[in-house]
């Protein structure tokens, strides 16, 4: 059972296994040891911090914003690593021009596949393209772009998440500064929270909007429930429609327990309409592109069915690695305190049950649908539920304090250890992103009109093949593996081209410990010569 976790079997292959060995296990081991030592801290001064005014939490939120914004350019080197992130910016560009889809220039339609159509909707026989994601996250990025930097989105949403969490904590524990601070600081000192906010992933928006929804829900006013539905509309349409409803369902059940039938009816009817709208969206976009393509009508349901049918037992090992990764990227005390909060409040407090059922439902759903998360700083499919666990940690701190264990020394020691882990994980993220960013900048600075990228010569090299919707940025990037053999030189007439092969991509393989095969370069060099006929070759 533990062999895949230790990385000694093929049942947990690929990126998940690599990240466990490269980033996560040292943190899990070190934090586990420190947690065992901190269990001995039974004495010490009882922690009774002064109640903070809301502006005190606003200062913490401002610090989070500044850290995440600076981190995008320092830790992430100003680069959007994964295809998921790139497609956010792709759709942002489309929305900023007042369109829903982008038309490829006519001369490039025959080369749509080499341009990289991964995660795009199959519409208009490849003459037009848009991502297969729902548009909410891209719309938020488009609004941030109007402020001067599209990468303000994650930091602003992270600050909103912390403010919403602080509002909830002050409502739940109005006279308990320690519980409020535990809830807020377990979020602020989460490496996953901070580093994901440095990216364009939708997960920071999920977290912020989930917490904003809960802050409105707990106000128990009709205007607040109506506002929560508006938040829910955006949250459901951020990128995939499954995540926000899994957060909401346990709170609807809490309404059932409390027999709040009018409120339940309003929210169920509202979410039924929201769900139907977003299920209709991909087909509507396809129709805008000039006709619905096969696989778009009902595409979300079809994709879910295909994922379930493709499931195998290896998903269990991948989920084990996901959850260990999640633990490594949180505050040292988050999960122990959340467990204490669940144990203390499960039977008597419906809110506690609702807070933990969201993460449990999400884990079960993703185990069935998509155990492999791909890239992610921590386990991103649980990102929108970190706030739930932070609130449970507040309940847990109260339980520990009542048992005589909630000392200032315990909290300070755990937070200091967590800060060290954040520095390690941040540097690990930087080391992973940096080689891709360096090669991307070499490509962007090239004088060539076209850059052919040997996308099989390095791990995730295909993600370097990223083009804007209207191909209005040079050089145009093409994936060698998808290039058509006949007529490949047509696009080169009157243009210059450069080639990115195994030599240029060597830093990526070096990071992953996977040097290029000695037989790989000659084969790709032959491809290079074939495709650069009638084209002026220039060095990268």
Give me some keywords for this one.
single chain; 540 residues; mainly alpha; 2 domains; four-stranded parallel beta sheet; two-stranded antiparallel sheet; 19 helices; 6 strands; globular; disordered N terminus
Written account of the structure:
It is a single chain. The chain is mostly helical. The chain folds into 2 domains: 14-429, no CATH class; 446-537, no CATH class. It is built from 19 helices and 6 strands. The protein has helices spanning 14-38, 54-74, 83-96, 136-145, 153-172, 177-188, 191-196, 203-217, 222-236, 243-257, 261-288, 299-309, 314-328, 334-345, 350-369, 386-402, 408-444, 502-512, 520-531; strands at 102-103, 128-129, 450-453, 476-479, 496-500, 536-537. The strands form 2 sheets. It has a 4-stranded parallel β-sheet with strand order 4-3-5-6. Strands 1-2 form a two-stranded antiparallel sheet. α1 (14-38) crosses α13 (314-328), α5 runs parallel beside α8 (203-217) and α15 (350-369) packs across α16. The model is unreliable at 1-13 and 293-298 (pLDDT under 50).
């Amino acid at each position: 059972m533990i062999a895949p976790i230790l990385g000694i079997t093929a049942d947990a292959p690929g990126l998940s296994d690599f990240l466990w060995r490269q980033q996560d296990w040292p943190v899990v081991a070190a934090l586990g040891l420190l947690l065992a030592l901190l269990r001995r801290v039974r004495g010490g001064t009882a922690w009774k911090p002064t109640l903070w005014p809301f502006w005190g939490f606003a200062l913490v939120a401002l610090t989070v914003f500044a850290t995440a914004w600076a981190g995008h350019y320092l830790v992430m080197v100003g680069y959007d690593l994964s295809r998921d992130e790139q497609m956010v910016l792709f759709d942002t560009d489309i929305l900023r021009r007042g369109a829903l889809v982008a038309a490829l220039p006519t001369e490039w339609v025959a080369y749509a596949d080499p341009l990289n159509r991964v995660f795009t909707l199959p519409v208009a026989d490849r003459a037009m393209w848009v991502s297969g994601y729902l548009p909410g996250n891209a719309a938020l990025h488009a609004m941030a772009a109007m402020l001067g930097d599209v990468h303000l989105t994650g930091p602003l949403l992270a600050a909103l998440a912390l403010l919403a969490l602080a509002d909830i904590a002050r409502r739940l524990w109005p006279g308990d500064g320690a519980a409020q601070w535990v809830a807020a600081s377990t979020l602020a000192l989460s490496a996953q929270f901070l580093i994901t906010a440095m990216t364009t992933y939708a997960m920071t928006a999920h977290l912020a909007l989930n917490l904003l929804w809960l802050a409105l829900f707990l106000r128990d006013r009709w205007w607040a429930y109506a506002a929560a539905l508006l938040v829910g509309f955006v949250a459901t349409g951020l990128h995939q429609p499954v995540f926000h409803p899994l957060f909401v369902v346990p709170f609807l059940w809490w309404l059932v327990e409390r027999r709040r039938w009018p409120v339940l009816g309003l929210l169920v009817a509202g979410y039924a309409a929201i769900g139907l709208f977003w299920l209709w969206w991909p087909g509507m976009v396809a129709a805008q592109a000039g006709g619905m393509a096969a696989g778009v009508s009902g595409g979300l349901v079809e994709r879910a069915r295909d994922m379930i049918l493709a499931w195998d037992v290896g998903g269990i090992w991948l989920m084990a690695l996901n959850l260990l990764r999640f633990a490594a990227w949180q505050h040292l005390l988050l999960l122990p305190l959340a467990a204490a909060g669940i144990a203390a409040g499960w039977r008597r407090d419906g809110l506690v049950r609702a807070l933990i059922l969201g993460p449990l439902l999400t884990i079960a759903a993703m185990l069935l649908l998509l155990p492999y998360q791909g890239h992610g700083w921590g386990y991103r499919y649980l990102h929108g539920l970190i706030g739930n666990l932070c609130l449970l940690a507040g309940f847990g701190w109260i339980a520990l304090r009542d048992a005589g264990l909630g000392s200032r020394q315990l909290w300070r020691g755990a937070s200091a250890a967590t800060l060290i882990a954040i520095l390690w994980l941040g540097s690990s993220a930087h080391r992973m992103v940096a080689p891709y960013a360096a090669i991307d900048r070499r490509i962007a600075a090239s004088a060539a009109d076209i850059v052919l990228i040997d996308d099989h010569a390095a791990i995730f090299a295909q993600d370097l093949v990223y083009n804007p919707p209207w191909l209005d940025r040079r050089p145009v990037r093409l994936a060698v593996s998808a290039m058509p053999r006949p007529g490949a030189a047509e696009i080169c007439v009157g243009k210059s081209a450069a080639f990115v092969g195994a030599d240029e991509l060597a830093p990526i393989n070096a990071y992953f410990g996977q040097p290029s095969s000695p037989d790989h370069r000659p084969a790709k060099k032959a491809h290079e010569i074939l495709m650069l006929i009638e084209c002026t070759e220039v060095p990268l």
